[in-house]
Amino acid sequence: MKKTDVLKYLNNINGEVQDLSLKVWSNPEISGKEKESADLFRKILKGHGFELKEIDGMEHAFIAEYGSGSPVIAVLGEYDALPGLSQTVDTTFNPVEQNGPGHGCGHNLLGGAALGAVLAIRKYLEETKLSGTIRFYGCPEEETLIGKVKMIKKGAFDGCDIALNWHPMSVNTALENAFLANNSIKFRFNGISSHAGQSPEAGRSALDAVELMNVGANYLREHVIDKARIHYTITNAGGAPNIIPKEAESWYFVRAPQRKDVEEITERLFKVAKGAAMMTETTVDYEVISGCYEMLPNKVLFDLTYKNMVEIGGPSYTENDLAFAKALQETLDPNMVEGEIKKYMSPDSDEKKYIHQGVLEKEKVNSVVVAGSSDSGDVSWIMPMNLLLTACFPLGVANHSWQATSSSGSSIGMKGMTYAAQVLSGITFDLLKEPSIIAKAKTEFNKRTEKRKYISPLK
Questions:
Q1: Cα–Cα distance list, 98 to 33, 35, 406 (Å)
Q2: Residue 37 in contact with residue 62, Cβ under 8 Å?
Q3: What is the DSSP secondary-structure string of 9-57?
Q4: Could you give the C-alpha distances from 260 to 239, 307, 369, in angstroms and in order?
Q5: H or E element at residue 390
Q6: Which residue, among 327, 410, 403, 411, has the nearest Cα to 85 in the 3D structure?
Q7: Cβ–Cβ under 8 Å, residues 409 and 25
Q8: Is 40 within 8 Å of 108 (Cβ atoms)?
Q9: Residues 6+ positions from 351 with CB-CB distance below 8 Å
Q10: Of 142, 118, 156, 113, which is closest to residue 29 (Cα–Cα)?
């Protein structure tokens, strides 16, 4: 069975994969609530002969395994949606449910491509009787940056040799570097309530403490590394204005290119919180509710991924696809659209500049910055992992937007998903045929982690 046969089989089951992806898109479930989505994946995988393994204490996480022996290859799948991003497949803002959830990060596509790849490789293993095990990892709670961190802590990835990963975006490329390390922290201040007009001297405002902490954090921004990010919301600000708030809470994200930077900035933020409490004569408790790592590069897997992306080639688009993309672009800041076109498209290209086509040239790969965070980064610190992006959104469309939700349910999204499934299948085919690639990837991984080992952000 050749690689072309694997891709042909994948094409034959593409309708089943797209149907699942659209069902997940039509029933968006936020992090920690992905029951129906996880069960859809379980049902299909079980129907194709995969053995299902549940993960203790994680209702919506699972492993589906096929084959036997080495190598053991993990393909990461996600399916959680985002709150407040409900949207129909439309070129104007048109929620299915006002303030409801939606797949503004394309995880319906992410899980779908991973599913297609493991089904195609299952067929390959069945036909060839080669030694090897393929695992689909059903990973919940990615949007809260904790699902895979929990799974690692529970030993769910034990025994794996390689992890394969992808994400929907507006460009087709392989990446060596991606994701910012992150801490998600809640600060809870406690004071003394009192009548704000009659006896303010008796009160100690927890809200004052939150606001003073925010001021301190904003000054701290000037004294951290350039690529660090500190952002927050106030999640509890008290009640009626005539009652001095006894309780108040803020929620912070600290991001930076490396985990060690996040940890250092977090310690400084703790001092800011304690200072705010001291100034207001309140008390403060804080909880690191999640944390994750940046992606650890692996050039061996980057080269293999890039080779397969070029070898397989990207999708083609109809005039209707291009018209849909153009109309979505018109809802965006034209400077952002033009910026992505200049970054990713050749200036002398004859292609209509609505969707990225082809594969980004290697010398331009470093221009792609994935400045969000993902718990996939943690997986890259326990085994070699790749990352590829495919164009599931028009140029200029950002993740976590209603335009991304619309694209994730459109034919453009489906084509990007199919391309990702083909590339993941091609990579896995090569790894099974040439296990020496895995050995080289592991050698690189061991060298990179020789002096810096993974320590779980979860205590």
A1: 19, 22, 15
A2: no
A3: HHHHTHHHHHHHHHHHHHS--BTT--HHHHHHHHHHHHHTTPEEEEETT
A4: 38, 33, 20
A5: strand 388-391
A6: 403
A7: yes
A8: no
A9: 345, 357
A10: 142
CA proximity to 133, closest of 55, 60, 53, 58: 53
222 beta partners = none
- Please state the three-class secondary structure of 188-227 as a single string: EEECECCECCCCHHHCECHHHHHHHHHHHHHHHHHHCCCC
- Single-letter code of the amino acid located at 4: T
Give, as one character, the DSSP assignment of residue 394. Answer: -
Token digits of residue 328: 């979505």
In this structure, what token pair is assigned to residue 196?
A: 């704000």
| Separation CA 369–CA 332 (nearest Å) | 19
In sequence order, the 6+-apart residues with CB closer than 8 A to the CB of 146 are: 184, 289, 290, 292, 375, 458
Q: Which amino acid is at 140?
A: P
pLDDT (tens digit, 0 to 9) for every residue of the chain, 459 residues total?
999 999 999 999 999 999 999 999 999 999 999 999 999 999 999 999 999 999 999 999 999 999 999 999 999 999 999 999 999 999 999 999 999 999 999 999 999 999 999 999 999 999 999 999 999 999 999 999 999 999 999 999 999 999 999 999 999 999 999 999 999 999 999 999 999 999 999 999 999 999 999 999 999 999 999 999 999 999 999 999 999 999 999 999 999 999 999 999 999 999 999 999 999 999 999 999 999 999 999 999 999 999 999 999 999 999 999 999 999 999 999 999 999 999 998 777 666 789 999 999 999 998 898 989 999 999 999 999 999 999 999 999 999 999 999 999 999 999 999 999 999 999 999 999 999 999 999 999 999 999 999 999 998
- If one looks up domain 3-179+293-448 in CATH, what number appears? 3.40.630.10
Q: How many residues does the chain have?
A: 459
Tokens of 24: 């997940």
For 180-331, list the strands marked E by DSSP.
181-190, 229-236, 247-256, 283-292
> Domain extents for the chain?
3-179+293-448, 181-292
Contact yes or no for 431/135 (Cβ under 8 A): no
The hierarchical CATH code for the domain 181-292 is 3.30.70.360
User: Which residues, in sequence order, are CB contacts of 273 under 8 Å at separation 6+?
Assistant: 187, 213, 284, 286
**Tens digits of residue pLDDT in 346-383:** 777 666 789 999 999 999 998 898 989 999 999 999 99
CA 230, CA 375: separation in Å to the nearest integer? 18
What is the number of other CB atoms lying within 10 angstroms of the CB of residue 84? Answer: 14
